[in-house]
Amino acid sequence: MNKLNISPRVTGQPVSNKTSDLVKASLAKRHAAERRFKRYGIAAVLLSLTFLLLLFGSIFSKGYTAFQQTYMKLDIYFDANILDPLGQRDIKKLSGADYNALVKATLRIQFPTVKNRSDKRALYGLVSNGANFMLRDMVLTDTSIIDHSKSIWVPASDDVDMLIKGHIDRAVPEENRRLKDNQIQWIDQLIAENALEKRFNSLFFTSGDSRDPELAGIMGALVGSCLTLLITLLLSFPIGVATAIYLEEFAPRNGWTDFIEVNINNLAAVPSIIFGLLGLAVFINFFELPRSAPLIGGLVLALMTLPTIIIASRAALRSVPPSIREAALGIGASKMQTIFFHVLPLAMPGMLTGTIIGMAQALGESAPLLMIGMVAFIVDIPNGFFDPATVLPVQIFLWADSPERAFVERTSAAIMVLLLFLIAMNLIAVLLRKRFERRW
Predict the structure, then answer these.
(1) 302 within 8 A of 296, measured Cβ to Cβ
(2) In 3D, which of 69, 143, 147, 157 has the Cα closest to residue 102?
(3) Ordered structural domains, the chain, with CATH
(4) Average pLDDT in the 360-378 region?
(5) How far is the C-alpha of 165 from the C-alpha of 160, rounded, in Å?
(6) pTM, to two decimals
(7) Are the C-beta atoms of 128 and 156 separated by less than 8 Å?
(8) pLDDT for residue 17 is more than 70
(9) Residue 42 phi/psi, 5° resolution?
(10) What's the CA gap between 256 and 37, in Å, rounded?
(11) First to last CA, the chain
(12) Residues 80, 101 contacting (CB under 8 angstroms)
């Protein structure tokens, strides 16, 4: 009887599968690569946030002190022999009186030991030039204070302000700092007499630009920015929306409309200074409109903002479902009625969002406005669209070029205000989108 050679069956050993092993190995590698990519992304986001916080921290640390200003208490005697020797109480003569003499007389009385002429000049330099205007405004408002004494808090000079805020080191040798030893002694005396204190710097928000840092404010730049953006909005929004409606709803699809669409997309990427050159060549040199006026700035920024508004408005129109149009046409509405009474209201939130983003971009622009002369030194607050004016980004540019330490903090404070406006405008855009946006 033949015996069959049957190999024994081995149990408990897995059958190897090369394909399965390869798939598992590659799957493990892919999962590891995905985890690494996720970590890289998180690291990139954290790094970006770190740099952003460092930037904001640097701006805040340099600028928050600008919201306070050092004031000095002076017991002013409004001497009629200086202000109105004839006793006529004429407003024009009172407006041109020597109010600086009142400040000097008060300081001489408060520091009787100061006799030297150079020491007197150093003493008078502790008070800001704005004290003269404050005294003049008080007299013009109420002439009855003439020949009477009154305690008044007036702005101290920028050097005194920097010393009080700790930006001037007392330990530095006298020849290497702006304040001399005798001036620091007088300041210490004023502090001991409670005649020197820091207060909220209301001048920063209520006054225009000035050569004196302690008197410089952003009110003129804010008003100029508002007037310029108003012109920009009035021109760019209706023109941009009308252009988007025509291109998206009425224009035939041919080479001409394709050419227009390509140029609109290209204009959105054109450097902003090119629009400034265009405004200089067309609005100022050709039409001879007034230089450095909000009207010119608004025209230039409207040209720059138009492509952004057109692109955003077309995207908003495109997002409205075709069924809305079909339903309106089906019940007998004309195409014009369909667009303006059904499609446009649904697309308006997206259009407003794009417009606000475009206006925020225009608010932060300075290069095109520099080309049309809005870099001029403007002291007065503009009252109209044709008055000389500047805007907040240009004001920041001017202050950043000043060597005084007091202008450094005002530059950072103005940047903080500009960032606050930009954040507010973007927040409004987000809220509008969330409030009125419809999910289809």
Answers:
(1) no
(2) 147
(3) 71-201 (no CATH), 219-436 (1.10.3720.10)
(4) 86
(5) 9
(6) 0.84
(7) yes
(8) no
(9) -65, -40
(10) 45
(11) 84
(12) no
